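Below is a filled-in request sheet from our internal design queue. Each sheet records the structural input a requester submitted and the sequence that came back. We keep these sheets so that new team members can see what a complete request looks like end to end.

REQUESTER: design group, bay 2
PRIORITY: normal
MODE: inverse folding
CHAIN LENGTH: 126
BACKBONE (tokenized):
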């Protein structure tokens, strides 16, 4: 097996891990990594001009997607490293995983436009 094959297999395993998580592990990952957990990150998205998208995730309509760059702009290098470790994916894949799975995860964690209470931990980074 050549180096390219090893890289391709590692990438395929990372993709399978993200698919298996399906976004349900994201609220817990935010609790571990981001100060204030998922609610605080949603506030940061709103402050960055993405309030309509966040509202769509919390509401009953279709979820509005955001590009991976919107997430990358709000995460420190340390947070990317911690998310990658927690989710079992390469750091470069974290913003894409958030773009793909966070809207649905928030949708499942909300009722009547309000996010359900979320866990928070003291080991968070910015």
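RETURNED SEQUENCE:
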């Amino acid at each position: 097996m050549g180096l390219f094959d090893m890289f391709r297999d590692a990438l395929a395993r990372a993709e399978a891990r993200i698919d298996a998580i399906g976004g349900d592990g994201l609220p817990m990952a935010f609790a571990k990594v981001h100060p204030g957990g998922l609610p605080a990150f949603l506030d940061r998205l709103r402050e960055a001009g993405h309030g309509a998208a966040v509202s769509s995730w919390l509401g009953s309509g279709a979820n509005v997607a955001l590009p991976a760059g919107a997430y990358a702009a709000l995460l420190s290098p340390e947070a990317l490293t911690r998310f990658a470790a927690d989710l079992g994916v390469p750091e470069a894949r974290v913003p894409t995983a958030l773009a793909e799975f966070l809207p649905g995860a928030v949708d499942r964690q909300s009722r009547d436009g309000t996010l359900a209470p979320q866990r928070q931990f003291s080991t968070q980074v910015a």
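SHEET NOTES:
- Residues 3-115 form a domain with the Arc Repressor Mutant, subunit A fold (CATH 1.10.10.690).
- The CA atoms of residues 23 and 105 lie 5 Å apart.
FILED BY: M.R.
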